[in-house]
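ARCHIVE CARD
SHELF: 3
SLOT: left
DATA:
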Amino acid sequence: MGGIVSSLIGGDATAEAAEMGPSESRVLVFHSSNRWQLHFNNLKDSNQLLVVNFTASWCGPCKMIAPAIDAMANNFTDVHFAKIDVDHLQDVSQEFSVQAMPTFVLLKQGKEVDRIVGAKKDELEKKIAKHRS
């Protein structure tokens, strides 16, 4: 049944919704609200942590922290990482009340458990470690 829904909206939520960046990043990049929603719904009942990085192509601090996010994604293999450009998926950004970039929203079982506003690498890493188990 999932295959039918996926084919209607354009593919598998996890495999095709994301583009793997250089050096095989584990950060899934979403360009479609429907695909994001499928991914989010797939993880809603999971106890695994999902870190959503709300970013923008024009955001300097977002670009500066991007390599650190890739490193965290490769280090915390039990955590899911997603990247959403606020200019491309404005509805998702509004749903999470994002007002500054970068904003990192940490979700577990579909609910926000923490939030970091700004390129605060050390704080983000500590909060991921805290919420991942």
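SLOT: right
DATA:
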Amino acid sequence: MDPRVARPHEPSVWQKREMGALMGGGVGLTIGFIFGSYSILRSGAGPRGLLATLSQYMLSSAATFSFFLAIGSVIRNDALLPPQLQAAQIQLLSPLVRSKAEGAMLMRARWEAEKARRTATTA
């Protein structure tokens, strides 16, 4: 590969964490709004009022989703190889998991070989 060819810049771990946290915050706010609204409609706003109760649902949900998606995005994207090279590596390596049909054929062949070996030793 020509060293002068510019490769696209990958985001750092900090940027990946930040993107995961922002996505989690958006998802959490939405889920908090949905479940908070349902809870308020079902059982009332309570002594704190409508806005305070809904905002508590939304913020607690956003904080939780943000935390876990930030961690998940860092763990998921923390690989030694870029994704395209991982895909090539998976395609070029011999498969560890075979199809059911291949496995059944291998099992039958081993059983037949073992059966032939046993009959040869007993005869």
